[in-house]
């Protein structure tokens, strides 16, 4: 494998992946540049195609020229999926379908990036975690479309012998994440002199992982994963204490000298995600390098502080939309 086609490479995780993978591979990025895509997140010199993964002829041509496809492209924000779900069905389901047809036709390797949210949520006071065999039970339009895309990938593996793998990862944080998402929204609020905004009570739990750890796991699966398999990716270990949204926001406020306020809760808000990533640790020898969330947050705060040029143009519009919903 020498040449990777990276879908959604101008988004948060995709751009960080390209930065990591370009040392070892020739890379072509295809990205629609929705509000979430930003060419400035990509390093100079990466081949870039401005296009939609739903366009079958374009995708066919790009897939035929590559050795493998890493599929990040998706509508990714739960809150948007509650307001306008159509684009989620289109990009996440139809887009994955178009890619699957192309990799089937040209017999190319595919790695499909998915989320822990396909499993639904867990009770706040429990100690259980999602494994690769947990039944799918998505809550939001976003997670339902990601679940649908995972099912399509599995069906194309079984029915047509497509050489694909899937990973389901927990919440990512790090540089180049859009300011609509939880951690960058709070950091940039404080940088703008506004309070951080906590949905509801903030008792909800997410299993935070640094984006570089996620991408190192993706690389391990691409290079050593077993075809047809699904791998959970998450940084916490069984028995680790749960980290609530309120604790994350308090840490950010403490590190930055800011304050926070409670705002309207998200309808249907998933309570807790906890990943059991034993399989990828055991089979592929992957382990996260960022095991201290506070240190990872400090580094992320530093990045947003020194890269205002990257996020400032998006900030006011995003906050206006949140304000319309009391958030
Ligand atoms: P993002 O919203 O930052 O980036 C998505 C990118 O895909 C953007 O550049 C956008 O322009 C592009 N895109 C969207 N629709 C497209 C289309 N039809 N054709 C071509 N390009 C299109 O998202 P992200 O946070 O980087 O997430 C990337 C992937 O990882 C998604 O599949 C998401 O479901 C998954 N994921 C994200 C997280 C997380 O915490 N952010 C966790 C687990 C899994
Ligand atoms: O301002 C906020 N205040 C707040 O309390 C925002 C934007 C969010 N929240 C809460 C909601 C969630 O409990 O923080 C938590 C994280 O919210 P998001 O960043 O919107 O992430 P989440 O909905 O958990 O989904 C994320 O992880 C899984 C990604 O956006 C998905 O793409 C990924 O699949």
Automatic annotation (TrEMBL):
Cofactor(s) needed for function: NAD(+)
Pfam family, one: GDP_Man_Dehyd
Record's keyword annotation contains Lyase: yes
GO molecular function, one term: dTDP-glucose 4,6-dehydratase activity
Signal sequence region: none
Gene3D superfamilies named among the record's database cross-references: NAD(P)-binding Rossmann-like Domain (3.40.50.720), UDP-galactose 4-epimerase, domain 1 (3.90.25.10)
InterPro entries, per database record: dTDP_Gluc_deHydtase, NAD(P)-bd_dom, NAD(P)-bd_dom_sf
Protein family according to the UniProt entry: Belongs to the NAD(P)-dependent epimerase/dehydratase family. dTDP-glucose dehydratase subfamily.
NCBIfam families to which the protein is assigned, alphabetical: dTDP_gluc_dehyt
Protein name as catalogued: dTDP-glucose 4,6-dehydratase
Record organism: Corynebacterium wankanglinii
């Amino acid at each position: 494998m020498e040449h990777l086609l990276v879908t959604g490479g101008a988004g948060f995780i995709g751009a960080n992946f390209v930065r990591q993978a370009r040392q070892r591979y020739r890379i072509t990025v295809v990205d629609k540049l929705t509000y979430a895509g930003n060419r400035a997140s990509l390093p100079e010199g990466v081949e870039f195609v401005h296009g939609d993964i739903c366009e079958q002829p374009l995708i066919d041509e790009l897939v035929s020229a590559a050795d493998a496809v890493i599929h990040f492209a998706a509508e990714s924000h739960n809150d948007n999926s509650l307001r306008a779900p159509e684009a989620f069905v289109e990009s996440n389901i139809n887009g994955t379908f178009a890619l699957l047809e192309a990799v089937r036709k040209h017999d190319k390797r595919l790695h499909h990036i998915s989320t822990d949210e396909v499993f639904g949520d867990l009770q706040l006071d429990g100690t259980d975690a999602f494994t690769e065999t947990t039944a799918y039970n998505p809550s939001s339009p976003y997670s339902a479309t990601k679940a649908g895309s995972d099912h399509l990938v599995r069906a194309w593996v079984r029915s047509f012998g497509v050489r694909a793998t899937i990973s389901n990862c927990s919440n990512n944080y790090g540089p180049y994440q859009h300011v609509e998402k939880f951690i960058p929204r709070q950091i940039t609020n404080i940088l703008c002199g506004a309070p951080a905004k906590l949905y509801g009570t903030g008792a909800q739990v997410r299993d935070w992982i640094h984006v570089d750890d996620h991408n190192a796991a993706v690389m391990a699966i691409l290079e050593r994963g077993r075809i047809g398999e699904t791998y959970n990716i998450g940084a916490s270990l069984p028995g680790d204490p749960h980290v609530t949204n309120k604790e994350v926001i308090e840490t950010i406020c403490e590190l930055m000298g800011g304050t926070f306020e409670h705002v309207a809760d998200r309808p249907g808000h998933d309570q807790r995600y906890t990943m059991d990533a034993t399989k990828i640790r055991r089979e592929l020898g992957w382990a996260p390098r960022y095991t201290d969330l506070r240190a990872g947050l400090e580094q992320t705060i530093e990045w947003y502080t020194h890269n205002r040029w990257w996020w400032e143009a998006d900030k006011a519009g995003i906050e206006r939309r949140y304000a319309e919903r009391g958030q």
